[in-house]
Amino acid sequence: MAITDKTEGVWVLDEVYNKQNQGGIWSYSGVASLFVWGKNTHGLLGQNNLTSYSSPVQVPGTTWQYLAHTASSSNDTDFSLATKTDGTLWAWGANGNGELGQNSEVKRSSPIQIPGTTWGQYMETTGGSVFSLRTDGTLWAWGRNTSGYGRLGLNDKNSRSSPTQIPGTWSNINANGFATMATKTDGTLWTWGNSNVGQLGLNGPVNTNYSSPKQVGTDTTWSTSMAGGGNWQTAIKTDGTLWIWGYNNKGQLGLNENGGPGAGLSGAKSSPVQIGTATTWSKITSTNSSAVAIKTDGTLWSWGQNNQGQLGINNEADRSSPTQVPGTTWANVLSAQNSTIAVKTDATLWSWGYNNYGNLGLNNQTYYSSPTQIVGDWRQGVREMGATWGGFMVIKDL
Hints:
The protein is mainly beta and about 400 residues long.
């Protein structure tokens, strides 16, 4: 993000940090510390062990900056990624597909550096595949690519154990299951991978796979807020409108309809469809078959499948259109594997949903169908949130 010229109004966190680094506003003395919790298969929590934790534990280091988001629909993503303030990229956990970028398949239970010093903010992991942007807008992919869908976007189906560039200049990436989408710096939206139920948004044909990026329509107003659940996708445009497409068996498209059970195309959409008429959507995230989103007024909304309380509305009834989660001071939200964490403007941290592995950081394995506060001193601020398979990561100031 460029350094802001705003002299009034509200700055987002990136604007504050960039302005501060330029000089001319207050100095910052906080320490960027990384905390993790949840499932720890293959050492994806970076603790140099395989012990799961149901409450936050710290990963060594004080210069962590950005965290990867793990796809909500891929159960073989037992690894983690994070960048440091010096632009280095670090990985740990499973490595059976070369996902740690070390040109090997040796797993690690503590962070190991991936070559390079210009890694940027946006990273995604899904099913043994990895995508990461550099600060120059180039997009790189590595890991598993043998599923038959070409989900690395490299125009082949060969796995990679070290980063390989996808052509183009990009602004964000979202990977879910076997379908991937990304925005370019010109505001266009591109997708690739599996399209069995229209989840690539290309208006058909279905059951056609693409191993390199294909443009969705001709629109140039897509923002960097995107999410999806493997067979459905959603994205916000720069005008604040929310769009959605793909499978709809649990009402996850938010259109007040659903296609019912089974693998058919009933109710599915193969091109983007707008949810309602609101122009105040600002952030969208997703679990397997449900979505959670924030509006500019600080309200939080959810819809789709709710069998594990993942919608945060104090029940387990599915919703096929956006339903408000109580509160008007929500600042950021992130979902994965039917669990959600969210930050309020008072810097408190909350979670709800699935909790089999201690995903919610509440020191137990109890499911919660409404937001429950995570104990801890978050008063200095949560800078960044990331997801693992079975847990979460946050960078907070100490």
